[in-house]
Amino acid sequence: MHPILKTLCGAIGFLLASCACAEPTLVQDVRVFDGERVHERRSVLFDKGVIVDADHRGAAPGGARIVSGQGRTLLPGLIDAHTHAWRYHELPVLFGVTTQIDMFTQVAMLKESRASRNAARADLFSAGTLVTAPGGNGTQFGVAIPTLVRAEDAQAFVDARIAEGSDFIKIVMVGAQGKTLELATVKAVIDAAHRRGKLAVVHVNTEENARAVLEAGVDGLTHLFTGETIDAQGLARLAARHGAFVIPTFTVLESEAGVQLDDLLADPAFASLLDKEMQSLLKARYGTAPRPARLAAPKALTAALYKAGVPVLAGTDAGNAGTQHGASMHRELAALVDAGLAPVDALAAATSLPAKVFRLGQRGRIDKGYKADLLLVEGDPSVDIRATRRIVEVWKDGESANGLRDGQRKLVAQRLESLKTALALPPDGRIGVFSDKGLKSPFGAGWMPSTDSFTGGKSTVTLAAQPALPDGQAPLAVIAKVAPELPYAWAGVAFMPGAQPMQPANLSAATLLRFKVRGDGKTYQAIALSQGVQAPRARPFTAGPEWSEVTIPLAEFKGLDTAAVTMLGFNAGPQPGDYRFEIADVRLLER
Questions:
Q1: Overall number of domains in the chain
Q2: Burial of 178 (0-12, 13-18, 19+ CB in 10 A)
Q3: Locate the Amidohydrolase-related domain: which residues (predicted)?
Q4: Which residue, 421, 579, 575, is CA-closest to 505?
Q5: What's the rounded Cα separation, in Å, for the pair 291 and 74?
Q6: Is 152 exposed, middle or buried, given 0-12, 13-18 or 19+ CB atoms closer than 10 A?
Q7: Residues 6+ positions from 234 with CB-CB distance below 8 Å
């Protein structure tokens, strides 16, 4: 298992240990939003993961846990209608999101998530592998995926996705000319999905393409798009005429526009559940400069869609810069209200509506026989949508998530505490001791092979200690074969400075990375990764036939947080081929 996945699994295991056992529960005298409308005073009884009575009268059953609803509102668990469930599987439930509708993830991740369904994770419904053209949007993430070229291959392509486990079909019509699907191919995929009884949704980024796919019979648009002007009324009428739904994804549109209109991290209750890395993704923006006027078009179109009766769903596009799983749903709800939806309809956009249009069964409502996925908040979000943030308790399959929330706060606090003090560097700064007995280091999880295999690549690497140099230090030979499958293919060696792989370590006492190298004359990459940074920072070096010394100031790894370093590495790639280099005397130095 890749180190990142090991770390995530460890965190999930910690949280699972805190999960409360299910018991009959009566939320008493509470305001209820049932998925469509508000009931000012009801009592709701649930047991064994199912709502037993949505309007319980009389005494509580024997042995039931009683929860006061005074001044509070009980909602169905929230459904995020647009996520990318690559990681952070433990977060959604902590923020009241009990179901995720995933628009693109690895098939292996999809299968693993379904096999491990439990009360600590949001249920996952997924498109699995999206439908895109060679080199098109979706192929840039370093994960090998099948692509589609010809309309006549659409049915076979759709059938393959369904066989992998896709619940619906996600199509991408975005990209440069020649790197996006032609409209005829998109229509063929839509028709192929419908022949198999599956929904077809499309990601577009222009008004022209939105009109084209609506005319082609798409069931829903997975995004709106930024812009300053748009024919909102005309496009809304077209969507209504074709019976389509729309997921605006304002959270990521704000990121594209370079603005932050709602600082969720200003709320200590939210900030305490997110470690530094999780917070960094939420703070990030795709737009390099604020351009709030770019939100005019999606706001106008959302208002027009709402007035035209088009189902508008709440989805965050979580997994992208400016978003975070679970937390961002509360911004999305507020953004929908800011765009013109009544608060009660924004709540429906995150509960009953996605359950209905994506055919998710007995969820998204508070009614007898429905899943006991529930969210209890202080106040009345049907009046003030931001009341959804005042979370009292979350139940997933009838089990309270309060233990999970407490466990996450402790975990976050521990991580923050562990990074306060810089690690003491070895007196000579040397961080690698290589020999035929192993690859050792004075601290951290140490040295290990690193390849693109966990992203679906087929690159390989062999590490072998070599005879000692005159100074007594044994070089490490890195013998790599970089495969051509991925655009960001690599193979090399990584040093993990944290106690566990991919855990951060405070290396702020160091300012320089120094090492000796020789090899086949090719150019390689020294990389550094820190918590909260999505892609490694890299600096090139050449491995010539004679030993040379390379010194890289850590400041040259732009954006690296030396107080939270998760990995240092030396990689071959991305060009495919055979590589061989040796490194020795690797040191982290104060100056």
A1: 2
A2: exposed
A3: 74-408
A4: 421
A5: 37
A6: exposed
A7: none
| Distance between CA atoms of residues 445 and 437, nearest Å | 16
The string of pLDDT tens digits covering residues 305-364 is 999 999 999 999 999 999 999 999 999 999 999 999 999 999 999 999 999 999 999 999
Name the residue with tokens 């979580």. Answer: 318
Is the peptide bond prior to 574 cis by the omega test (within 30 degrees of 0)? yes
Q: For residue 69, is it within any domain? A: no
Residue closest to 103 by CA, chosen among 59, 142, 161: 161
Contact 456, 107 (CB under 8 A): no
Looking at 308, 326, 360, which one is the last position of a domain? 360
Give the span between the Cα atoms of 301 and 238, in whole angstroms. 12
Co-location of 356 and 437 in the same domain: no
The DSSP H or E segment spanning 39 is strand 38-47
Q: What is the pLDDT of residues 186-204, one digit of tens each?
A: 999 999 999 999 999 999 9
The neighbouring-strand residues paired with 539 are: 526
334 and 470 together in one domain? no
Q: Distance (Å, rounded) from C-alpha 353 to C-alpha 291?
A: 31
